Amino acid sequence: MIKDELLVLDSILNKPSTKIDVIKNETKLTTKRILNLAENINDQLCGSGLIIKYGDALKIKIVDTDKFNDFYTKLVAYCSDNELNSRLLNESLFLLNAADYIKIEDLADIFYVSTRQISTDLKWIRTFFDKYSLAIISKPYYGLIVEGDELNKRICIAYIYSRNKDINNIILQIRNIVSDVINENNYSISDFAYENLIVHLYVSIVRIKNKQSIKFKNDEPIDVNSKAYELAHKIAGGLKNIYKIDFNKDEIDYIYIHIKSKRKYSDEHYSEISSEINGLVHDFLSLIDKTYQTDFKNDFQLCIALALHFTPLISRVIYGLRQDNPMLDQIKQKYMFEFQCAETGSLVINDRYNTILSEEEIGYIALDLRLSIEKRNKGKYDILLVCSSGRGSSELLKEKFTSHFNKYIKRISAVSLNDINVDELENHDYIFTTVPLLIKTRTPIFKISYFLDDDELNEINNYLLNKELSINEINTYFPKKLFLGKIDCKNKDDAIKKMVENISIYEDIPSDFLEQVILREKEAITSFGNNVAFPHPKNLITSKTFASVAILNEPLLWGDKKVSLIFLASIEKKSNKNIQIFYKMISKIINNKKYIDKLINNPEYKTLENILLE
Questions:
Q1: Cα gap 202→611, rounded to integer Å
Q2: Which long-range contacts (CB under 8 A, 24 or more apart) does 226-233 make?
Q3: φ/ψ (deg, to 5) at 62
Q4: How far, in Å, CA of 190 to CA of 335, rounded?
Q5: What is the pLDDT of residue 280?
Q6: Distance (Å, whole) CA 283 – CA 462
Q7: Which residues is 447 bridged to in the sheet?
């Protein structure tokens, strides 16, 4: 449906009007379907534009260009298949590498598409460039050119190259040079950062060959006596010999900042950590502890881990380098509480370094906090696994179970069905069985499949990690009066508005509550890519913690992801040592596709209760 909407829009954009028969030929859709889609598009445009029918033709009137472009860009992003996304990135790369103006007609010829398609693609590309503080400048009779700092251009180009597997053979020589230098000097870089460094060096070579050298500017002096600068010199020398290009001081400085910001610090490097970084960690954790009544500040191992983590992180902040995080969506989805804590603590970094820490960086910090929480979890259990067949299959299941849940296991045994000792069953804390076990025992028995799919692993993890929830706890955080069930909404903002209107009837919320939720969405879209959105105010502004739940009759585009289930939550201002219970409830649902589908298909409050009690 959403892809069809894009087809209709593309057929009528940038034209005075378009006959419906022409749209039918271009889209292969029926007249009735086209008119219904036009109606749906009008609902989603929310006044920023309007498709109007004139006799046997359609035309679009754009009222608010910025809002319309935002809607259109998100629609394109959602519908982008691999081929389209590849073309958009290649067009972006071509513009970035162009040394002079280029006309739309020439771009169309190069990429074998129409000029109208290029105009459409440019909407997406402008939004993409905006993330890197780059802009496309249009000059009459000349064409288009990308303006922005060379550093930002290189970071953007590196992002595009990192998604192109075809460069792997090209960068092999670069990888060999870097590997030799790094290994010879015992300098530690994580695998992900190492690959990122290789791509950036390749970008540097391409830009230098095209006479697009960097003019490096920075307030912090370059430490020319450091190990990182020594390595930068050696790498530049190796690349010069292979590629026959000169690296001036600015280019060597550029290699240096990448090496410095990508260093992996281990515990033995803690003595090198500055008092500034240690003070930052203290203030970071103090804010989290004060806000959520946690006790992170007294976890010495966490303080060391964050100090080692923050040292290269602050280098990236100072030098304006971006850090990709391919796990971001999963981190936000699985570790909601830890991400919220890291986001709160990041305010200290933002204030101290006059920056806005990216969600990618916040996601990595959340992993440190998660590790701290898991280490403090003392739950260890005696577990019995029961399998239908012989010793081999039992031991294999035991091995898989241990690899996933070792932190919860005090002792684990695996037996076949025929080898069960009924008298000893109550010596175990839990029994997990792949076959029906018709035996009376006070030990909890759980039926599992032999191959343990992702949903089962999540269920087992949630059970071993969490204590059983009470009806009172569920009703406290998920009041029945805030459960809307099925609702009809035109778009994301309409859904949020309807939910806030209902919340305002039953809860004491400030007058700017809706504004705070919208502001948070503008900073970062809260959809997870699993049919769920988790909107919430930008700041802690209510006296209670609660969540409103709504299930959409028709899925909506939420950013670039489709959403059917919405949890609109608010976290209380005052400290609450039990706040993790709330996040565990939310996580239990959004981490399990079976629960999500169950709630969507059975949109009743009782369904929510039953899921949380399972």
A1: 51
A2: 226/256, 226/260, 227/185, 227/187, 228/187, 228/256, 228/259, 228/260, 228/263, 229/256, 230/185, 231/181, 231/182, 231/185, 231/187, 231/259, 232/256, 232/259
A3: -95, 120
A4: 22
A5: 94
A6: 31
A7: 433
Please identify which residue in the block is written with the tokens 């067949």.
389
The answer to whether 509 and 568 have CB atoms below 8 angstroms apart is no
d(CA 190, CA 192): 6
Whether residue 536 contacts residue 515, with contact meaning beta carbons closer than 8 Å, is answered with: no
Segments of the chain scoring below 70 in pLDDT: 1-3, 74, 77-84, 165-169, 217-221, 266-270, 376-379, 388-393, 426, 442, 463, 465-470, 575-578
With 0-12 / 13-18 / 19 or more C-beta atoms within 10 angstroms meaning exposed / middle / buried, residue 320 is: middle
Q: Amino acid identity, residue 105?
A: E
- The residue with tokens 């699993």 is 530
Structure tokens given for 195: 């690959």
The C-alpha atoms of residue 464 and residue 409 are separated, in whole angstroms, by 10
Task: Identify any residues that bridge with 144 across adjacent strands, giving them in sequence order.
Answer: 102, 138
- Name which of 381, 380, 383, 376 is nearest 397 in CA terms: 383
List C-alpha distances in Å: 592 to 333, 461, 582, 595: 10, 11, 16, 5
Name the burial class of residue 327, with classes exposed (0-12), middle (13-18) and buried (19+) by CB atoms within 10 angstroms of its CB: middle
Q: Whole-angstrom distance between the N-terminal and C-terminal Cα of the chain?
A: 35
Name residues whose C-beta falls within 8 Å of residue 2's C-beta, 6 or more positions apart in sequence: 75, 78, 79, 557, 562
Q: What 3-state class would DSSP assign to 212?
A: coil
How far is residue 211 CA from its own chain's centroid? 36
Owner of token pair 């033995």: 268
Cα gap 113→483, rounded to integer Å: 48
Query: In 10 A of CB 70, how many CB atoms?
Result: 14
DSSP bridge partners of 445: 431
Give the pairing of strands 483-487 and 430-433.
Answer: unpaired
Find out whether 34 and 9 touch, Cβ atoms under 8 Å.
Answer: no
Q: What is the pLDDT of residue 578?
A: 61
> Which neighbouring-strand residues pair with 412?
383
14: DSSP letter: T
Strands ordered across the beta sheet of 445-447: 409-416, 381-387, 430-433, 445-447
- Picking from 368, 320, 374, the residue whose alpha carbon sits closest to that of residue 342 is 368
Tokens of 136: 């496309």
Helices 31-45, 65-79: crossing angle, 10 deg rounding: 120
